[in-house]
Structure formats: C-alpha cells, structure tokens
Design brief:
196 residues; alpha+beta; 7-stranded antiparallel sheet
C-alpha cells in the first residue's frame, strides 16, 4: 500500500507539483499521533518566522513542537517520511538529505499569512508535507490551507480533516492558513537538501 501511495505522490509532483490525499496513513497511526499531540500540548512553544526564528504575531500565531525519533509514536511518522524521502530521491533524483517535522496547534483565531516554505535566496526546503489530525472538521471550523500558484491564483482550498496529507514543492506554491475557529492540529514537515 505504501508503495502505491508513494507512486501517487511522485506522479502528482511531476504533473502539477502538489497533491491532497485522504486516508493517507493507517487509522491506528493517525489515532496514536492525534493522542500524542494532545498529550504533548504543554511542551509546545510559539512558532517563529523564517530561519531567524523571530516571533511575529501579525504573520503567524500557531504553536509547535518538533518531532523526535526517540518518541515511538512520532518515530512511526518519521519512518514513513524517511521511506517517502528514499522513494522521492530514487524516482525524482532530488538529493533530499534530511526531513524535519513538527506538530502545530492553532488555537481559535490563530492563522499563518501567505508565505513560501523555502527561505529566500537559500535552496533548502524542497518538498513540504502537511498531515492533519483534526476529527469532525467542517467548513464552518475555518483553518483551511489555501494553496496558490506564483501568479497568486488560488489553486486549492484544503480543509484540515483527519488523516489528510498534503504534499507540494516548497519553492513553487505560496500558501496560507486561514484563522481557525476551534483548536486545529497538524504535522508540518519538510524534505531538505541541507540539514541546517
């Protein structure tokens, strides 16, 4: 099943540069990640902006916790991502060397204004992943991911529904998170060609 998922991701990255996949992981892993995110909530810190790690509440208001391979549940997600990294390198010759990811929690009213994931004048993040952990999410709950092309045309509005995975080329798609109307959980990650 994983190979089929990886093939689907590669095909979409070649054709359009992004993909939205429902029921991406095994339900038991999804549930374990959701519960782990809830249990770790007291360890989350306010997120910064860009590689300067500066706090700017006018641009971004979520809180994050970096995933750690010593946590058995988080390591299962990181293992899935390492396998995907190997598949992307084998299929697309991207030269990906590192994957980093964090839990993100958006409280009511939190948002992230439009941005690129690849830092300006620095080719580092190549492929972005966003995995959603939210149960019973509806259009009334806000927190949508809006994906644009470089001409500012809206390509996709993604509801942050449970077990939904979004993958896109980091340098190609500016995106934003609309204000959440209730607590919103996700895992954001990046395949990089550098480690720092």
């Amino acid at each position: 099943m994983q190979t089929t998922l990886y093939e689907k991701i590669v095909s979409a990255l070649i054709k359009q540069g992004y993909i939205v996949i429902d029921n991406a992981l095994e339900p038991s892993l999804y549930e374990a990640l959701f519960q782990d995110s809830l249990m770790q909530e007291k360890s989350f810190k306010k997120a910064g902006i860009s590689n300067q790690k500066a706090l700017d509440a006018t641009q971004r208001r979520d809180s994050i916790l970096w995933l750690n391979s010593t946590n058995p549940i988080q390591n299962q997600f990181l293992s899935f991502s390492r396998e995907l990294q190997n598949y992307l390198n084998h299929s697309l010759f991207l030269g990906l060397k590192y994957y980093e990811a964090h839990y993100a929690i958006y409280q009511e009213g939190d948002f992230y204004k439009k941005h690129f994931d690849s830092f300006k004048n620095s080719k580092n993040r190549v492929v972005t992943t966003v995995y959603y952990l939210n149960k019973n999410w509806s259009e009334d709950d806000g927190g949508e991911l809006l994906v644009y092309d470089k001409n500012d045309t809206l390509l996709e509005t993604v509801l942050p529904k449970a077990n939904r995975l979004v993958v896109f080329l980091s340098e190609e798609f500016p995106h934003e998170v609309k204000p959440a109307k209730k607590q919103r959980h996700s895992i954001a990650g990046w395949f990089r060609i550098d480690k720092f």
